[in-house]
Amino acid sequence: MSMTATVGRAHADPHHIGRAAEHEGPAPKRIVTAYGFWIFLLSDIVMFSCFFAAYAVLSGQTAGGPKGSEIFDQKNVAIETVCLLLSSFTCGMASIAADVRNRLWFYLSMAVTCALGLIFLSIEFREFADLVARGYGPSRSAFLTAFFSLVGCHGLHVSAGVLWLLTMMAQVFAKGFRADILRRMMCFALFWHALDIIWVAVFSVVYLLGSGA
Amino acid sequence: MLGKLDWSAIPFDQPIPLIAGAVVLVAILAVLGWVVVKGHLPYLWHEWITSVDHKRIGVMYILLASVMLLRGGSDAIMMRVQQAIAYQSQGYLPPEHYNQIFSAHGTIMIFFVAMPFVIGLMNLVVPLQLGVRDVAFPTLNSVGFWLTATGALLVNLSLVIGEFARTGWLAFPPLSELSYSPGVGVDYYAWSLQISGVGTLVAGINLVTTVLKLRTKGMNYLRMPMFCWTTLASNLLIVAAFPILTATLAMLLLDRYLGFHFFTNEAGGNVMMFMNLIWAWGHPEVYILVLPAFGIYSEVVSTFSGKALFGYRSMVLATMAICVISFMVWLHHFFTMGAGPDVNAIFGIASMVIAVPTGVKIYNWLFTMYGGRIRFTTPMLWSVGFMVTFIIGGLTGVLVAVPPADFMLHNSMFLVAHFHNVIIGGVLFGAFAGFEYWFPKAFGFRLDERWGKIGFWFTFLGFYVTFMPLYIAGMLGMTRRMQHYDVAAWRPWMIIAAFGMALLSIGVLSQVMQVVVSIRNRESLRDRTGDPWDGRSLEWATSSPPPVFNFAFSPDVRGEDAYWDLKAHAKQQLLESPEPEYRDIEMPRNSPTGFVCAFFATIMGFSLIWHIWWLVIVGGIGAFATFVVFAWRDHDEYVIPAAEVARVDRINREERRNLVSMAGAV
C-alpha cells in the first residue's frame, strides 16, 4: 500500500467510466482563482441580462418623451467604443507585461488603460448630463429609465474597474509581481475584458438598434 | 442629519413589537454581558467571529438559521392565532401589523432560515465529503456569512425602528412603489435582501468552485457522494438565479429612490416585468432550497439502510434534470394574469414534467431501503416522514400546475397549504435530518435520541394538523393573507390549524430541549471514533470534530462510498493502512475581513433605509478601505508543522484501530 491512504476498492467503477481520466486532485491556486472569478463574471452577465431584458420590454414606452433615434449621438458612441476596445488591448499588454515582470511596460499600459477608461466615462457622463439638462432624465419615461439603468450600470462597472486598476498599480508598486498579486491581476484583466463584451452588447442593442428605429 | 429617522419611528403605541423587542434586547445584552464578564470575548473573536474555517462558518450559519427560525415561528403562531379568533371580529392584530407579520414571516423563513440552514450544512459537510481541507475561497466564505447576518439584523431592527414591508414576501409593485408604500418597510425589505443576496452569491460561487476544482485525488464526478452533487446543482442555480433578484430589487429601489419608471403605473412602467423577473429567480429558489435536502435524504437513507444508494447514476441525472427544468417553469406563478392558453399550457406541462425526476428520486430512496437493515434513528425518521409528506405536497403541486385548476386555487389557502407542505416537508425536514446526522461530526457528541424522536413526532403530527385544514379552507374558497373573515364554514379549520400550531411549537421546543439535554450529557454521548452511524462517505473518515485541517493526508479515492469500502477492506484483511509520511500543512489565516465588511454593510444599509446620506458615504469609504486593507496583507496562510499533524492523527488512528478490532471481534 502506498504512503497516501488508498480509500475504497471493493466495487471500483464497474462500468470503467472513471478509468479514462483518473481525477488528479485539487487544482492549483491560479486555476481555482480564475475559475471562481469566471463564475462570478457569468453571474454578473446574468445580472446585466436582466437590465437588457428590461430595456427590450420598455424601449418602446416613451410616454410622449423622445425616442432613441432622437437622442443618440452616433459620433459620441463611436468614440466611446473605440476607447473601450483600445483599453482592452492595452489591458492585454499590461497582462503580458506582468507575466514577463516588466514594471515599466506594466505601469505604462495600465496608465493608458486607465486614461482610456476615464475618457469613456467622461463622454458617457457628458451624454447623461446633457440629456438630464434637456429634461430627458431617467424619470421622464420608462424607455429613459431602462436606458439610463442599463448604460449606467455598465458605467458603474467601469468606474469600479478604474478603482480596482489603480489599486492594482499601487499593489505592484508596493509589493512587486508576487504570485497572489499576479492572480489578482488576472482577475482584473478578466473583469475588464468582460466589460468590453458587455459594451459590445450595449452598443448593438441600445445604440445601433435604437438609432435605426 | 438623521434623514427620515426620528422618534416617531419607534412604535410606542404598539405593545407587541415593543415588548418583543425589549425582551430580545435584554436577552442580547445579558448574553453579551455574560460573555464579557466571563472573559469569553477573545475566544469568540479568535475562534469564531474571525474564523475562516468552513466547519465553523457552517456552524454559525446554522446557528443564525435556528435563531431566525424562532423569530419566523413566532410570526407564524401570531398569524394562526389571529385567524383562529378573527371570525366576525378584528382579532387582536391591527391590519397594518398583521400585514407586516405575514410579509416578515415569508421573508425570514425563506431568506434567513431555509437559505442559511442549507448553506450552513453544505459548508460544513461538502469539503469533508470531497476529502479536502477547506472551500475554494475561505475568507470570502466568512464575508458571505457575515453579510447574511447583516440582512437578518436589518430585518429584526425593523421590528422596533420603523416598520417592515406590508406587501407580502415578494413585494409586488405597484403596491411596493413609493406611492402605495411610502414608509421605510419596503426599503428594509429590499436592502436586507440585497445585502444578504450578495452573501448568498458569494457562497454559491465558493461552493461551485470547491466541487468542480478541489476534489481529492481519485474523486471522479461519478464517485462524489450524492450530497455533493445536489450541492453543485443548488449552487449552480444560486449563481444563475440570484443576480436576477439583485437586478430586480435594484430596479424597484431605483423606482423608489430616484423616481424611475420600471414598474410604475405611469410613464410606461411595466408591472408584469416584475412578476417575470422575480419569479425567474423565485422558482429556481425553491429548488436551490430543496435540492440540498434531497442530498441529505440520500446520505441518511443509504447510511441507515446499510446499503449503497440505489440507482446512483439515475439520481445524478435526476438532480441535474431538476436543476435545468427549474428554470423553465416560473410562469406558473401567474397563470391567471392573462398570458393566454398557449403559454399557460407550455408552462403547465413543464411544471408537471419536473415531477418526473423528483419521482425517480423517491423511488430510488424506497429501493435503497428495500432489503436494507434499517435503523430508525432520528435522522431516518425525518427522512421517512419527508417521503410521505413530500409526496402529498408534490401531488397537490401537480394539481396546481394544471392551469384551469389553478384559476380556482391561486391565491387561496390551498396554495398556502401546498407550499408549506413542500417547504416544511421537504426543506425543513431535510435540514433537521442533516442537523441530527452531522451534529456529532461538528461537535464530537451525538444528540439525545429520546428528545429527538419526541421532537420529530410532535413536529410531524403538528404539521399535518396545521396544514391539512388549510387545504380544506382553500377548497372552501378562503384566500390567503386575510386579517379577518365572516364565513362560518372556514372557522373550524382555522381553529384546528391553530391547535396544530401548538403541536408544532411543542415539537420545536422538544428540539431545543434535545440540544440542551445533549450538551448536558455530552460525556456519555461522546463520539470517539468519528463514525457514530457507520457512515459511508469521507466525512466519517476523520475525527469528530475534525481537526482544523480536516485530513492529515489527502485521501485517494478508488470507488463510490469511499469510506465504506475502506472499512470493508480493513475488516476483511484485518489490517489497516500504515502510517503515512506526515507533511507540513498550510492553512488560511483567520481574518476579521468578513466581520468588518458586515459592519460597514449594516451601517450603509441602515443609512440608506433612512436616507442618511453622509453615513452612506462613510459606509462606502469604509467598505473600500476594508477591501484595500485585505488586499494589502502579506501573509494569508500559516503552517501547521508535520509533528503536530502526526500527533493529532495518531490519536484518531488509535480510536479507529479499536473500532476495527471491535468489529473484527463481532
From TrEMBL, chain A:
<dbReference type="GO" id="GO:0005886">
    <property type="term" value="C:plasma membrane"/>
</dbReference>
<feature type="transmembrane region" description="Helical">
    <location>
        <begin position="35"/>
        <end position="57"/>
    </location>
</feature>
<feature type="domain" description="Heme-copper oxidase subunit III family profile">
    <location>
        <begin position="35"/>
        <end position="211"/>
    </location>
</feature>
<dbReference type="InterPro" id="IPR035973">
    <property type="entry name" value="Cyt_c_oxidase_su3-like_sf"/>
</dbReference>
<keyword id="KW-1003">Cell membrane</keyword>
<keyword id="KW-1133">Transmembrane helix</keyword>
<keyword id="KW-0812">Transmembrane</keyword>
<dbReference type="GO" id="GO:0019646">
    <property type="term" value="P:aerobic electron transport chain"/>
</dbReference>
<feature type="transmembrane region" description="Helical">
    <location>
        <begin position="77"/>
        <end position="97"/>
    </location>
</feature>
<feature type="transmembrane region" description="Helical">
    <location>
        <begin position="187"/>
        <end position="210"/>
    </location>
</feature>
<feature type="transmembrane region" description="Helical">
    <location>
        <begin position="104"/>
        <end position="123"/>
    </location>
</feature>
<keyword id="KW-0560">Oxidoreductase</keyword>
<dbReference type="GO" id="GO:0004129">
    <property type="term" value="F:cytochrome-c oxidase activity"/>
</dbReference>
<dbReference type="InterPro" id="IPR013833">
    <property type="entry name" value="Cyt_c_oxidase_su3_a-hlx"/>
</dbReference>
<dbReference type="InterPro" id="IPR000298">
    <property type="entry name" value="Cyt_c_oxidase-like_su3"/>
</dbReference>
<dbReference type="GO" id="GO:0016491">
    <property type="term" value="F:oxidoreductase activity"/>
</dbReference>
<keyword id="KW-0472">Membrane</keyword>
<comment type="subunit">
    <text>Heterooctamer of two A chains, two B chains, two C chains and two D chains.</text>
</comment>
<comment type="function">
    <text>Cytochrome bo(3) ubiquinol terminal oxidase is the component of the aerobic respiratory chain of E.coli that predominates when cells are grown at high aeration. Has proton pump activity across the membrane in addition to electron transfer, pumping 2 protons/electron.</text>
</comment>
<comment type="similarity">
    <text>Belongs to the cytochrome c oxidase subunit 3 family.</text>
</comment>
<dbReference type="InterPro" id="IPR024791">
    <property type="entry name" value="Cyt_c/ubiquinol_Oxase_su3"/>
</dbReference>
<dbReference type="InterPro" id="IPR033946">
    <property type="entry name" value="Ubiquinol_oxase_su3_dom"/>
</dbReference>
Automatic annotation (TrEMBL), chain B:
<dbReference type="GO" id="GO:0004129">
    <property type="term" value="F:cytochrome-c oxidase activity"/>
</dbReference>
<feature type="transmembrane region" description="Helical">
    <location>
        <begin position="422"/>
        <end position="439"/>
    </location>
</feature>
<dbReference type="Pfam" id="PF00115">
    <property type="entry name" value="COX1"/>
</dbReference>
<dbReference type="GO" id="GO:0016682">
    <property type="term" value="F:oxidoreductase activity, acting on diphenols and related substances as donors, oxygen as acceptor"/>
</dbReference>
<keyword id="KW-1133">Transmembrane helix</keyword>
<dbReference type="InterPro" id="IPR023615">
    <property type="entry name" value="Cyt_c_Oxase_su1_BS"/>
</dbReference>
<dbReference type="GO" id="GO:0005886">
    <property type="term" value="C:plasma membrane"/>
</dbReference>
<keyword id="KW-0349">Heme</keyword>
<feature type="transmembrane region" description="Helical">
    <location>
        <begin position="451"/>
        <end position="473"/>
    </location>
</feature>
<keyword id="KW-0679">Respiratory chain</keyword>
<feature type="transmembrane region" description="Helical">
    <location>
        <begin position="379"/>
        <end position="402"/>
    </location>
</feature>
<feature type="transmembrane region" description="Helical">
    <location>
        <begin position="612"/>
        <end position="632"/>
    </location>
</feature>
<keyword id="KW-0408">Iron</keyword>
<feature type="transmembrane region" description="Helical">
    <location>
        <begin position="189"/>
        <end position="214"/>
    </location>
</feature>
<protein>
    <submittedName>
        <fullName>Cytochrome o ubiquinol oxidase subunit I</fullName>
    </submittedName>
</protein>
<feature type="transmembrane region" description="Helical">
    <location>
        <begin position="16"/>
        <end position="37"/>
    </location>
</feature>
<dbReference type="GO" id="GO:0009060">
    <property type="term" value="P:aerobic respiration"/>
</dbReference>
<dbReference type="GO" id="GO:0009486">
    <property type="term" value="F:cytochrome bo3 ubiquinol oxidase activity"/>
</dbReference>
<dbReference type="InterPro" id="IPR014207">
    <property type="entry name" value="Cyt_c_ubiqinol_oxidase_su1"/>
</dbReference>
<feature type="transmembrane region" description="Helical">
    <location>
        <begin position="343"/>
        <end position="367"/>
    </location>
</feature>
<dbReference type="GO" id="GO:0020037">
    <property type="term" value="F:heme binding"/>
</dbReference>
<feature type="domain" description="Cytochrome oxidase subunit I profile">
    <location>
        <begin position="43"/>
        <end position="558"/>
    </location>
</feature>
